[in-house]
Amino acid sequence: MVEAALPEIGPDASLLLVDDDEPFLRRLAKAMEKRGFVVETAGSVADGKTAALARPPAYAVVDLRLEDGNGLDVVEALREKRPDSRVVVLTGYGAIATAVAAVKIGATDYLSKPADAKDITDALLASDDAMPPPPENPMSADRVRWEHIQRVYELCDRNVSETARRLNMHRRTLQRILAKRSPK
User: Fold this and answer.
1) Whether 73 and 148 share a structural domain
2) Residue 91 in contact with residue 98, Cβ under 8 Å?
3) Residue 8 pLDDT > 60, yes or no?
4) Are residues 145 and 110 in the same domain?
5) Poorest-pLDDT segment among 20-34, 44-58, 82-96, 157-171
6) Residue 171 lies in a domain
7) CB-CB contact of 71 with 47 (8 Å)
8) Distance (Å, whole) CA 153 – CA 173
9) Are 25 and 108 found together in one domain?
10) CATH number of the domain that 46 lies in?
11) What is the DSSP letter of 41?
């Protein structure tokens, strides 16, 4: 398979990544550095705002829900300092209302997790009038369900009872799902 040429990043390749999922943040930072970005990471709204105000990047990828608040606060801070920056908002809780709110305050695009580095790069570098292509290999419904359950499980600090309550399912059913491997 021949990989298509990457879109042009431009003279300023600074990229701020804001996410409280540390393993995801490390993987994404590494992948974006390989694509030519100069990456700075932050794990909270406070750290993200500090970085955005001190060194406003040309590009940013911000998680919507962070442990200490809303990622849209980082987007607003960045827009105040650098209105030309291209910002992609990521979330594991995709909803039309939050997508509209993100775009209203200046986000360039809005992607649901899990998004890979290619999807994020395409969103960051897309021209404003270009429509993104549909995903080449979309996840199965079983995989999407499993990813959502895992995310809620992690947000509940791996507490099975609390996760089952939030997902409105029986605790034993959840335990069986968690004991299985992830679907393809």
Assistant:
1) no
2) yes
3) yes
4) no
5) 82-96
6) yes
7) no
8) 13
9) yes
10) 3.40.50.2300
11) E
CA 100 from chain centre, in angstroms, equals 16
* Residue 121 shares a structural domain with residue 146: no
To 10 degrees, what angle do helices 160-167 and 141-155 make? 130
CATH number, domain at 169? 1.10.10.60
Range of the domain at 81: 14-125
- Cα angle, residue 122 at apex, residues 183 and 87 outer, rounded to 5°: 105
pLDDT, tens only, 82-116 = 888 899 988 776 666 677 778 888 888 888 877 88
Q: What token pair was written down for 86?
A: 């291209």
Q: Which of 23, 18, 5 is nearest to 118 (CA)?
A: 5
Are 173 and 115 in a shared domain?
A: no
User: What is the DSSP secondary structure assignment for residue 169, as one 8-state letter?
Assistant: S
Structural domains counted in the chain: 2
Q: How many CB atoms are closer than 10 A to CB 172? A: 10
C-alpha span between 16 and 47 (Å, rounded): 11
170-181 confidence digits (pLDDT tens): 999 999 988 887
Could you tell me which residues are beta bridge partners of residue 111? 90
Strands 59-63 and 86-91: parallel
* Integer Cα distance of 116 and 126 in angstroms: 15
> What's the pTM?
0.67
Q: Report the C-alpha gap between 26 and 35 in whole angstroms.
A: 14
